[in-house]
Amino acid sequence: MFKKWIKKRGVQKEELKGPNSQELAKQTEIKELAVDSSSQKSPKAPEQSDSIQEKGLKAGTQRFGLFKRLKKQMEKTRGGFVRQLDQLLIGRQEIDSELLDELEELLIMADMGVTTVQNIFENLRVEVNKKELRDPLALKKRLKEQIINLLEVPSAQITWTPRPFVVLVAGVNGVGKTTTIAKLAYRLKQEGKKVLLVAADTFRAAAAEQLDTWGRRIDVPVIKHGAGSDPSAVVFDGIEAAIKRDIDIVIVDTAGRLHTKVNLMEELKKIKRVISKKVKEAPHEVLIVLDATTGQNAVSQAKLFSEAVGVTGIVLTKLDGTAKGGIVVSIVNQMQIPIRFIGIGEKMEDLQKFDPEEFVEAIFAES
Ligand SMILES: Nc1nc2c(ncn2[C@@H]2O[C@H](COP(=O)(O)OP(=O)(O)O)[C@@H](O)[C@H]2O)c(=O)[nH]1
Ligand SMILES: [Mg+2]
What we know:
Number of strands: 8
Bound molecules: guanosine-5'-diphosphate, magnesium ion
Shape: elongated
Structural class: alpha/beta
Strand order of the largest sheet: 3-2-4-1-5-6-7-8
């Protein structure tokens, strides 16, 4: 299973396999040569091939570990959805319209959204009618393919350049913005990037403190002002500090709720203007954080923020806490904005890059 998985995920075969007999012979030759000319240092070739092999295995093992974690954290969705799916398919000899109806209902129950599910089944029904799709097990495979297709939104990857690369993070209260920012900063720091955080959620006194505590824990600087101060002023100072300190990536935390007198969207637009005045073409990425456990409500939030501040990417949190992971499909299909990261737990490591194929495999996985 492990090898099959690594192969599928595109780890180079050469990186995984041991040296073949020809290579071994070559290595032995080199070794012998080295023994003969004792004044010379051992040639690097055999060690190099080992280290490439080890590197390949390490990368494979790491990815496998991430996938395992994803699978484990998605247990609720998988348990609910796949078990019922298998119950529907077991013992069926052929696909009839009753089966398709039941399946359709199951996907809607998993929060995939009515329109999205209808689209999927329109395609499937055509294939069934044309007798291209007969076997219930093939139907499961086709379903997986269709979902992966829906999740693959054509979009550019985040480049994390130029410097400072500014990320604005928005979303309503409690969705997981601050936690996500900490996880992301931790991740980027591990990749060797210089990160700075800006606490522009000045509405609650505890908000800046929370970010500051995270900052200390992961050893990343945080720019903050006192509670109740102007969010745009903190952002101004934050960007200025980032330029001075030669920071690679600035991540701006914002409030999800403001005094009733101040409009949240207007405040975000103002923050955006302040950022772009300081750094041309920034913010380079506007992330909206959505809580997967809120179901279709997340889609309405995405639309609101998108209209106001032009969202470029989505972070979907708390996927570990819901049996309805289908919300992922619904959001992507309706928004046509890529999901950049998913939150699958409260640990620092529980922010994963979203990969449609891996995600669907994790949900459909049998054990
Ligand atoms: N289970 C789970 N909890 C999360 C995840 N992301 C955030 N949380 C929790 O959600 C709560 C609100 O998070 P917070 O970052 O303060 O939200 P904010 O108001 O948007 O900044 C906290 O208790 C977090 O630990 C996640 O991916 N999984
Ligand atoms: Mg917060």
